[in-house]
Design brief:
Helix content is 11%, strand content 37%. By secondary structure, it is mostly beta strands. The protein folds into two domains: 91 residues, Beta Barrel (Ribosomal Protein L25, Chain P), CATH 2.40.240; 86 residues, Beta Complex (RNA Polymerase Alpha Subunit, Chain A, domain 2), CATH 2.170.120.20. The N and C termini lie far apart (120 Å).
């Protein structure tokens, strides 16, 4: 993903405020053992760009003074109530150094899983992104997670997620965090398997025949003789 930035000379609160009033956003680029560079970007173009998922989770091509640089978005400061980007930070990327990045998860197939299809459950997305370690060339824009194998009473963990080649999951705290849990919907009616049309005879037994006719009722007693 490509964007254009311009080098700026002035810094400070007053200079940044004047820059924002002119429709520009102040920012910096740092890293790779190079001095921090002050930059500015067109605010309107940036406002639409930050809404794209790829801008937050992939290596970006930044054109600065006619030269292209590989960078990562590291921080965006927003105004508390205005639609205004106050400041933005980028980090230069070294092709030979592995990156720690949070990558979004894209889920699919849950409606085909036994848990959802047959057992009246729903897939609860506990995590929507995971932190990974990889070289810049291996960094995925997102990671697909197949939920078609979900079963009632089971959860999907980080180690169950199939990662692209060259990508390793970074786990903090829990050794194997839950990514998706299976939750039973309250009041859900689970369909039982259809019963056979005719009940199967017991093992070694004979099929039941017709029921024997009920025994005839005994004749009514004769009335007592008159005296």
């Amino acid at each position: 993903m490509k964007f254009v930035a311009f080098e700026r000379a002035k810094q400070g609160t007053g200079a940044s405020r004047r820059l924002r009033n002119s429709g520009r956003t102040p920012g910096i680029v740092y890293g790779s053992n190079v001095d921090t560079t002050l930059i500015e970007l067109d605010h309107n173009a940036l406002w639409h760009t930050i809404k794209k998922e790829a801008f937050h989770a992939s290596v970006l091509d930044m054109e600065l003074n006619g030269v292209e640089h590989k960078v990562l978005l590291r921080d965006v400061q927003m105004h508390p109530f205005k639609q205004l980007i106050l400041h933005i930070d980028f980090q230069r990327v070294d092709a030979s150094t592995k990156l720690h990045m949070k990558v979004p998860l894209h889920f699919f197939g849950d409606e085909l899983s036994p848990a959802v299809k047959n057992d009246g459950c729903v897939a609860n997305h506990v995590l929507t992104e995971i932190e990974v370690l990889c070289l810049p060339t291996d960094l995925p824009e997102f990671i697909k997670v197949d939920l078609s194998g979900l079963k009632k009473g089971k959860s999907l963990h980080v180690t169950d997620v199939v990662l692209p080649k060259g990508v390793t999951a970074v786990k903090h705290g829990s050794n194997n965090p839950v990514v998706v849990s299976v939750v039973l919907i309250a009041g859900a009616v689970v369909e039982a398997p259809a019963a056979d049309a005719a009940a199967a005879p017991a093992k070694g037994g004979k099929p039941a025949g017709k029921a024997a006719p009920a025994a005839k009722a005994a004749p009514a007693a004769k009335p007592a003789a008159k005296k």
